[in-house]
Amino acid sequence: MSYKMDKGQKAVLGDQRLGSELMESRDGVQEPCIWSSPEGGKDEAELGKRIFCNRSLNMRNIIAVGFDMDYTLAQYKPETFEKLAYEGTIEKLVSNLGYPEELLGWTFNWKYMVRGLVVDKKRGNILKMDRHKYVKVAYHGFRELTKEEKVGTYGNTLIRDAFDEPDYALIDTLFSLAEAYLFSQLVDFMDKNPGRVPARVDYARMYKDVRSAVDMCHRDGTLKQMVAKDPKKYINEDKSIVPLLKMLRDSRRATFLVTNSLWDYTNIVMNFLCESRTLDGCNFDWLQYFDVVITGSAKPGFFHEESNANLFEVEPESGKLINTDNGTPMAQVGNTSPSITLKKQNERCRVFQGGTVRHLHKLLSIGSSSQVLYVGDHIYGDILRSKKVLGWRTMLVVPELEAEVKLLWELRDSRKALQLMRSDRDHIEDQIHRLRWSLDFEDLKADQKQEKSALVEDLEFQRDQVRIKHQQAQRECHQKFHKVWGQLMKTGYQNSRFAHQVERFACLYTSQVSNLSLYSPNKYYRPGEDFMPHEFNILPM
């Protein structure tokens, strides 16, 4: 099913004709027609828990469903985990990279940054762009750039900037939010305190130092050691994950886990998520829910079949790595048999480290890449590579979507009013244009010219009033989503760059991986047209 809009419908999205097309009768009650809704209807899934579809996907054709772990199965709490990452990064900047000790007293606002932003390393700016890479919102540190500054910096070149590495960095994961916030703090600090940062440090070097400090936190295990001590403090509990995995396995699909985390940390997190931890510590009961687990995968390199990365088998009890020949245990020197035999309880799931997608396909006997659905949170590390390089079907997890979709629904009347104001403004502009055309090119009498000139002045006044009212209402609506950056999936009336990437690379997207359990495992997902699917579903009626 698709909806093609005529010119009138496109001018006012809340037009009654469009509304009537989007409505369906259920027991005599009019309701919005929802794409990809559960078989039981609207009430069986909250608006914020829906799965939205960019490209048709028939789950009957999927024989294997795979998951990333961090920020996909395991949703970290930003108020504790991101704060931990922020404080660890500052400690490394001070103790290892020579930054002043007063940074240790800084605090972290975990709500300030959002995904989809771009860091301009050379200029110390944070940018939000639309799908065409036009900069719509920009901050230098925490100071908003004026329209003139934005145009002068990013809109005056004959050749459009690609806004890619090495001069720019994408804030495309939730884990990047803390480092982006710290970078903005450092930009402000350097501007106000010249000479207080290490010698010969400019904005670009400062960003590089922040990234180096983050990497140090990962290398020395600072963050993961703290999470391992108290997973509940840093990870959200989700009791739907085990039923979801059971549902997929009961539907005779293979399930696999591919994570960049190493085995020791993976085991702790999955024990917590699957509630298999005992008083004696972690066990391996959660492995029953998977056919293959690959840790230390080094994504996105993992997705390149030509990679020569070796695949090692992990002995769960000791963490010992065993050489394999494409997944088959190899006999050790002086011994004609493989060095390890896995316990019977783990026969259905073997644990590996490293390797490539070629090894995974062989282990799961996958004949065609299109038979795999992979669920991840990283638009580049998980979704783009697996979709573009392999042709896997993809589902992107966007936790922020749940609140955004609910707010879109709550603001439906306000958004309809905005669209009507925009339509009124355009209509007045057209009237002014026609009158000016008449004044410039038609042979008019003096009284006709005077009458039309007066009408132009009156319409210009009306236009200015409508423009001011519209801009103010738009800003207020924008700030209800986020006081600084606005709606995640929009930049003004255009889709944001992040939304554009979601459209291009994710077959499906949703707020939580466990939302899959609200739908039949054999569902046929179909897309809408003309709008982001989640927005199309909740247009004002």
UniProtKB/TrEMBL annotation:
Q: Which Pfam families match?
A: 5_nucleotid
Identify which residues the record assigns to the active site. D68 (nucleophile), D70 (proton donor)
| Keywords, sorted A to Z | Coiled coil, Hydrolase, Magnesium, Metal-binding
Q: Which cofactor does it need?
A: Mg(2+)
Extract the coiled-coil ranges from the record: 445-476
**Which residues are recorded as binding GMP?**
D70
The cross-references to SUPFAM superfamilies, in alphabetical order and at most eight, read: HAD-like
According to the record, cofactor stoichiometry and binding are noted as: Binds 1 Mg(2+) ion per subunit.
Q: Cite a single GO MF annotation.
A: 5'-nucleotidase activity
Q: Which domain of life is it from?
A: Eukaryota
Gene3D superfamilies, from UniProt?
HAD superfamily/HAD-like
Q: Which InterPro entries does the entry mention?
A: HAD-like_sf (IPR036412), HAD-SF_hydro_IG_5-nucl (IPR008380), HAD_sf (IPR023214), Pur_nucleotidase (IPR016695)
Residues that coordinate or bind Mg(2+): D68, D377
Q: Of which family is this protein a member?
A: Belongs to the 5'(3')-deoxyribonucleotidase family.
Q: What name appears for this protein in its UniProt entry?
A: 5'-nucleotidase domain-containing protein 4 isoform X2
- This chain's source organism reads Populus alba x Populus x berolinensis
